Amino acid sequence: MAIPKVCGIETEYGIMVRGADSNPVTASSLLINAYLAVNYRKVGWDFEDEHPGHDARGFAVDDLLAPDIETNLVNSVLTNGARYYVDHAHPEISTPECLTALEVVRYDRAAEEIIRESMAAAGGHLPVGAEILCYKNNSDGKGNSYGCHENYLLARSVPFGRIVSQVTPHFVTRQVMIGAGKVGCEVAGMSADDVPYQISQRADFFEEEVGLETTLKRPIVNTRDEPHCDASKYRRLHVIVGDSNMSEIATYLKVGTTAIVLAMIEDDALGDDWLLANPVAAIRQVSHDPSLQRTILLRSGRRATAIEVQWGVLERARKYERSHGLSAVGESVGVDVLARWEAVLTGLENDISTVAGIVDWVAKKRLIEGYADRHNLSATDARLKALDLQYHDLRADKCLARRVGLQTLIDDDEVESAKTEPPTTTRAYFRGRCLAKWPADIVAANWDSLVFDIGRDPLRRVPMMEPLRGTAEHVARLIDESNTPAELLARLGA
Amino acid sequence: MAERTQKQKPAPSRTEETVEEAPASTASGDKLKAELDDLLDEIDGVLETNAEDFVKSYVQKGGQ
After folding, report:
1. Which of helix, strand or coil describes residue A98?
2. For domain A7-40+78-417, is the CATH number 2.60.40.10?
3. What's the pLDDT score for residue A73?
4. Does the pLDDT at position B1 exceed 50?
5. Residues of A with CB below 8 A from B35's CB?
6. Which chain B residues are Cβ-neighbours of A398 within 8 angstroms?
7. Which of B5, B42, B44, B58 best probes binding to A when mutated, by most A CB atoms within 10 angstroms?
8. Nearest beta carbon to residue B39 from set A135, A215, A404
């Protein structure tokens, strides 16, 4: 049986400073530090991303030399278990490890709120009239892209070749449900005259089927092998092909359908019926066709529309539900994802206006076409590009996505609590609770470890190599009953 | 494909059956259009004032 699809999202936000000179790295650092200064006593404890020499498992405690201090870039861990940092000249938030797609949506929404609060906090550190603006999109329209990456836990035993070939059809065609929409085209040699509007923000930037790159020659399937957990048991599939979504249900479908597809691949229940002949050409072709009518070539020699491929994958998922159940993705969430998946495909096929409250590219397209009609604008008018950008503007009063009637999944109070409280069902619970309770005593945090300074040498490192250990069920009482980190470590068996 | 079969509506039992389904869908279509019109009415007040400059100045370093 497929292992639980522990999952999360990392979002790089677009950033712009208005009314002052600043480079994006400085602006990103200022943004994050301003947030930390308001919300945390200690500003940005740094951490090393990798400790290759340490491969201890479970909650055994061992010793560690003090990590090198990296002072020039902000790199912090929040009490909700998320990471908030500067990456490639963008502010980035990685959600904590979550057990279901629904939880990912909640933490992705909390990340948006954190950015919004950061923009407000940063205002106090800027010259009068200056502001930092953040955008949850994936392209500047000038050929520069930044990512929204998903991560999923897989058993190491699954042959990687099978993952690559079988997940690719989903990655190429899922965009009809979850593309965020884009005015114009950024493929070299093509322009808005060729493609006035397309389904995906990201599709133009994919040039390879499989590979290690994330910033150039981007591959549809990324091969980064950095599991941040026990590498002998697990793989973390790092997915770089998706758009950032403003629609909560789109994020839900993005993570939910992909988690199901990966569970099926793990259980060898998906099959090869929908393998594609030329994925790179296909991903662009699908994106460039909002009519959804064009077909892509399958390896079998048949042709199919993206929606037909999606129906095929969904049919397999229905069979999988009956044969294996959906416990790997959370049973009730899985069942709900299947129902919504079917409803969206039905809407896309029959009456696309019925999914304008769910599918970002459809919502944005209505807005852009409505505005162009009203003002009699050509497809290349700058105002349409401005509307596109402003759909993703994270300022509450400027964000057009907040005005187009997108349906929501998560209540405001759930978003509010997710800004500070970790998920209870993964190791993020241990990380977040410890950071909240003993901020002054933790010198480094990482996905797979916490390093405590308990006032005497050496520093004490708690490895967290199992993503599903350190949950509330395992450690809530331990943390509640420990008055000091030394006590906690003693109880953990140090 | 069974999953795609829409649920059949119960057979109409009285004279209302002559009413077509169209009005419902048109009504919701009208509502959507009215909402879009409202949004377009307010959007000029929300839109960045100089769209061309705004779009030009939005330049990002490539990320991942």
Report:
1. strand
2. no
3. 65
4. no
5. 405
6. 46, 48
7. B58
8. A404
Q: List active site positions of A.
A: 87
Q: How far is CA B16 from each of CA A74, A178, B9, B23, rounded to the nearest angstrom?
A: 67, 40, 14, 13
Contact A192, A130 (CB under 8 A): no
User: Is residue A406 pLDDT above 50, yes or no?
Assistant: yes
A367 at the B interface (CB within 8 A)?
Answer: yes
Q: Quick one: which H or E segment has residue A334?
A: helix A331-350
Encoded tokens for B52 = 């061309």
- Give A56-60 contacts, CB < 8 A, sequence gap 24+: A56/A463, A56/A465, A57/A230, A57/A463, A57/A465, A57/A466, A58/A463, A58/A465, A58/A466, A58/A469, A59/A462, A59/A463, A59/A464, A59/A469, A59/A470, A59/A492, A59/A493, A60/A463, A60/A493
Please name the member of B3, B52, B64 whose beta carbon is closest to the beta carbon of A214. B64
Tell whether B8 lies on the interface with A, counting CB pairs under 8 A. no
Q: Which amino acid is at A431?
A: R
Q: Residue A41's CB: how many other CB atoms inside 10 A?
A: 8
Task: Kindly state whether A309 is in contact with chain B, defined as any CB-CB distance less than 8 angstroms.
Answer: no
Q: What is the DSSP-derived secondary structure letter of residue A440?
A: G
Check A389 against B61: CB less than 8 A apart.
Answer: no
DSSP code for A40:
-
Task: Quote the DSSP letter at residue A422.
Answer: -
Half-sphere exposure of A335 (CA within 13 A, CB side): 6
**pLDDT over threshold 50, residue B23:** no
Q: Do B64 and A403 touch (CB under 8 A)?
A: no
How confident is the model over A411-424, as a mean pLDDT?
98
| Nearest chain A residue (CA) to B50 | A383
Mean pLDDT of A427-449: 95
Nearest chain A CA: its distance from B9 CA (Å): 17
Chain B positions touching A148 (Cβ under 8 A) are none
Residues 444-463 of A with CB under 8 A from B: none
Q: How many CB atoms lie within 10 A of CB A1?
A: 11
Task: Write down the ipTM of this complex.
Answer: 0.88
Calpha distance B12→B15 (Å, rounded):
8
Tell me whether residues B62 and A346 touch, CB distance under 8 A.
no
For chain B positions 20-59, those within 8 Å of chain A (CB to CB) are 25, 29, 32, 35-37, 39-40, 42-43, 46-48, 51-52, 54-59
Residue ranges per structural domain of chain A = 7-40+78-417
* Exposed/middle/buried for residue A358 (C-beta within 10 Å: 0-12, 13-18, 19+): buried
Confidence tier at A494 by pLDDT (50, 70, 90): low
- Say yes or no to pLDDT of A184 above 70: yes
Distance from A316 to chain B by nearest Cα, in Å? Answer: 11
pLDDT at A147: 94
Looking at residue B26, its pLDDT comes to 61
Q: Give the pair of three-digit tokens for residue A280.
A: 């790179």
The closest of A209, A360, A195 to A286, measured between CA atoms, is A195
Lowest-confidence region among A231-240, A276-285, A448-457: A448-457
